[in-house]
Amino acid sequence: MAVAELNSAFTKTHFHSSQLSFLSRSVPKHQHCDFPTLHRTQQHARISCSVTQNQVQAPAVQIQEPKSKSDCYGVFCLTYDLKAEEETKSWKKLINIAVSGAAGMISNHLLFKLASGEVFGPDQPIALKLLGSERSLQALEGVAMELEDSLFPLLREVSIGIDPYEVFQDAEWALLIGAKPRGPGMERADLLDINGQIFAEQGRALNAVASRNVKVIVVGNPCNTNALICMKNAPNIPAKNFHALTRLDENRAKCQLALKAGVFYDKVSNVTIWGNHSTTQVPDFLNAKIDGMPVIDVIKDRKWLEEEFTEKVQKRGGVLIQKWGRSSAASTAVSIVDAIRALITPTPKGDWFSTGVYTDGNPYGIAEGIVFSMPCRSNGDGDYVLVKDVIFDDYLRNRIAKTEAELLAEKRCVAHLTGEGIAVCDLPGDTMLPGEM
Ligand SMILES: NC(=O)C1=CN([C@@H]2O[C@H](COP(=O)(O)OP(=O)(O)OC[C@H]3O[C@@H](n4cnc5c(N)ncnc54)[C@H](OP(=O)(O)O)[C@@H]3O)[C@@H](O)[C@H]2O)C=CC1
Ligand SMILES: O=C([O-])CC(=O)C(=O)O
């Protein structure tokens, strides 16, 4: 009888049949293993594989603890000691990434990018913690199965759950995508309230169980005000760590400028989206550059910039829905990747990126206490600073004032969720999400 033995240190304590199929893949290629056997001690598990010519032997599996609701999924319950394998010795420490709305369309693109290593790098193992609801639990299992079947080397753990207090445990990144879409006839105030409740609860959960330096990117709409609510409910996490995703708007603006100037879009830089992720957002062509030159010196059609370009970016999401029948999912996932990478890699010299962040202490005179998209730079440590050397003209100031007024009105409308008293909803009538046009 030939016996192959694999020693691994396990941090998890549960095993079931799907793991055994994984374990059999772990046996050296020259030895076929029909029946991997798991032996457990207090801290370690050892797999031995019995290989016989004629003999059939039942697998012996000792299960020591029951699997709990939000625990690891399938093959991901198996956690190797990364230092024990030659290939993984140089890898960084595993990081925990929580994703809400994980069974939704955006996540369906994003999760596979995260798992592939293209976001955090080829030496960064990750654990994905997927938050769903009763409604989506089955679908979430399907997502986890697809992640299993993708055999991503860097994806070391996946867990699924419906309780944010469990799913957000030790999260170092929280990508908050899940939110109720605005249905026909629904008032924007109702949407703010329904989604606000979700983000208030998730803020409290992050406050209670996430890493103290968790970086939070809110995608679910209306993302600026949801980010504000989340932040206000997480007082023990730095306010600076909360972002509303406006990178998709920045990417859309770069694309339109490149198209008009007849250049490839990598020539377009320094594009700021000011304000709300809504149709009042301000894509800033005054400070933007094409091939290092001010956009206004390259595209000398101010009327086009003020009217057509601006409106195209503001309403791009809605036009896409009309054509595609659903809202941007792939390009949103790409922009989430861009937003994360903007924080974990140094910003190219002279350039900046847009993200919705808390306005307290901003150098532009924008009202404090709201989450507003502004130009930022990072040295790649996950943090950012606001860019000071930007210029304004009357046009830009007026446009910024409009999106600022909208966000202040949204803030008053969710005062009951931010601990700031009684809500008063006097939202401007034309307030729309990009996708609502
Ligand atoms: N900031 C940006 O640039 C962009 C933001 N968005 C926003 O991202 C969000 C997600 O988009 P997408 O993935 O396409 O949407 P999907 O409809 O595919 O998924 C959204 C998820 O939200 C969750 N959800 C939470 N609460 C509710 C609720 N009350 N009713 C229904 N679903 C709920 C659902 O998951 P579960 O049941 O698991 O909770 C669902 O899977 C939306 O709010 C959208 O407007 C979209 C594009 C760009
Ligand atoms: O309104 C939506 O859900 C879509 C959206 O935010 C966008 O495309 O920018």
Automatic annotation (TrEMBL):
GO molecular function: L-malate dehydrogenase (NADP+) activity
CDD domains per record: MDH_chloroplast-like (cd01338)
Subcellular location: Plastid, Chloroplast
EC number(s) per entry: 1.1.1.82
Cellular component, GO, one term: chloroplast
Domain Lactate/malate dehydrogenase C-terminal, first and last residues per copy: 246-416
Reactions it catalyzes: (S)-malate + NADP(+) = oxaloacetate + NADPH + H(+)
Keywords: Chloroplast, Disulfide bond, NADP, Oxidoreductase, Plastid, Transit peptide
Keyword flag Lipid biosynthesis: no
Domain Lactate/malate dehydrogenase N-terminal: 96-243
Pfam family, one: Ldh_1_C
PROSITE patterns registered for this protein in UniProt: MDH
InterPro entries in the cross-refs: Lactate/malate_DH_C, Lactate/malate_DH_N, Lactate_DH/Glyco_Ohase_4_C, Malate_DH_AS, Malate_DH_NADP-dep_pln, Malate_DH_type2, NAD(P)-bd_dom_sf
One GO process term, biological-process aspect: malate metabolic process
UniProt key word Plastid: yes
PANTHER family: MALATE DEHYDROGENASE
Family to which the UniProt record says this protein belongs: Belongs to the LDH/MDH superfamily. MDH type 2 family.
Subunit note: Homodimer.
Protein name per UniProt: Malate dehydrogenase [NADP], chloroplastic
Annotated source species: Arachis duranensis
Gene name linked to the record: LOC107466651
